[in-house]
Amino acid sequence: MVKPTGVKYTRHVMDYSTALIVRKVGTSCFRLYSVASPKITTHYTVRPRETDHRWKDISMERYEDVADVVIVGGGPAGLSAAIKLKQLATEKNKELRVCVVEKASEVGNHILSGAVVDPVALNELFPDWKDLGAPLTTLVKDDKFGYLTKSSRIPIPILPGMPMDNHGNYIVRLGHLVKWLGEQAESLGVEVYSGYPAAEVLYHDDGSVKGVATGDVGIAKDGSPKDSFERGMELHAKITIFAEGCHGHLTKQLFKKFKLRENCAPQSYGLGLKEIWEVKPEHHSPGKVEHTVGWPLDKNTYGGSFIYHLNESTPLVAVGFVVGLDYSNPYLSPFREFQRFKHHPHVQPLFEDGKRIAYGARALNEGGFQSIPKLSFPGGALIGCTAGFLNVPKIKGTHYAMKSGMLAAESTFDTIFNTSETSETTGLEPKDYEEKVKNSWIWSDLKQVRNVRPSFHTKLGLFGGMAYSGFTLAVKGKEPWTLSHGVPDNERLKPKTEVSVIEYPKPDGKISFDILSSVALTGTNHEGDQPAHLTLLDDSVPVNTNLNLYDGPEGRFCPAGVYEYVPMEEGTGDRLQINAQNCIHCKTCDIKDPTQNINWVVPEPGGGPAYNGMIQAICVRP
Q1: Helix (H) or strand (E) holding 22
Q2: Which of 187, 388, 499, 512 makes an SS bond possible with 507, Cβ 3.0 to 4.6 Å?
Q3: Total domains, the chain
């Protein structure tokens, strides 16, 4: 156990043999923490089935299928890669089997983004996208940026070429765009398998990636096999492309196995939360985009808001809030900061007498240029948000995701048909993919803004960061130095004894809401009788470290009410309860957990949110 300085501990053994820690700070009251923690994790990634007698007579054989290329993830990056591969195969008159596995029950259902993005890659992938019916219909007509104090708004001018300049942008539902990309992919012959989460990376004997295995079904909550148990299937490929999105759980394994992060900075993250509202017609201004920084966050907490007005049959507005996950106060709740933001005098009138109809949240990469890992390895490659491609000051990433997928497709195609015979490993490596990225506008764009995000880590916080950002953008990132992000986000939390408790107002049920009523709007569904997919490497850590040292930050950084500390049935302290059925797959817990004890893995097929097309702003370059 990690013990804060100045805190005294004494150990007592109760008559029912439960060891407790009694904490006393000065003359304050005692509080009990259980050392003998109850069993929480039953997932086979932590509790091996090989040593569980209940699995002794269960067949573990899996069906195997073989493709030329397997793509893990059916988002903008994965589908763009699949489409480009089939376009190249048609152009070169080659046979190429391409399979995409997507964990959502339908393509686009897990897509959530609140960023302003620039899909210039869409023009490259489909020059005739308008004729093909791509769902980009709302042109940005009004663009605002401001700094919020507690009671006022200070406008910040947006000049042409500034990161927040959205001239020529379209506001779209990104989930609908992804669904459209999926339809284009299937029309070209791509095999898209929705509801098939990739649960395991498979390897050849030489260590190169062989493919992936999808998740098993029919496992009870206690980890035992049900009568309905079925193994997942193995998908083998010459090259496997990973497009899992931000903080992919298989990508984490690849980072370690192939040391892909050996020569880059730790990734830094933000948490984006979003709601869709139907507002009164007189409050609606189709095509309006507004961003803010400042209140309710303090100057040392990175983040800001966005509001997009759609042009649809009903007056819909998307409002969102992003909080950098490098914050230090364990009492901060990104969800409650978002709810508080909507009560700002400049913001609240927009939502009065309106109706909230959707909610969602997702982690996003903020590390930028410094945090890009090695992009290829024997048997595969990383693309899109899995690789960390996001322009933080522009809040844009979809066009990088699509472009990286296209570049990986080009390298993959060439590797399979032109260089496979010279490969040193069974799994082929698209070695020139990284060079293609470095020679593209992905690399030049991210390098130019590399120092913006880390500049907010000084004692001046927001004000110092904005001042430095103005400088680096003025010189177009040509300063001869690169700033560091410092330690990973999970290491930035301060002990509860070093910070002040943040008091949040109660939600009013009209403008602001509680977490559970919000999760109800996500369409989230998981099979109840299955092991929690939020696994703990050590079941004792939450109480003995997180609760003791940080007062249980899980219950605050999770935007879905998955984690809560409840009294032990025996009345001998607290225990962590994981409400896995609430999980909206944002990955925040896997990122912000102080000891990295939480490991997110995929649930049974089809589990998760059903966002059905959240809203996002997209810029299309001529």
Answers
A1: strand 19-24
A2: 512
A3: 2
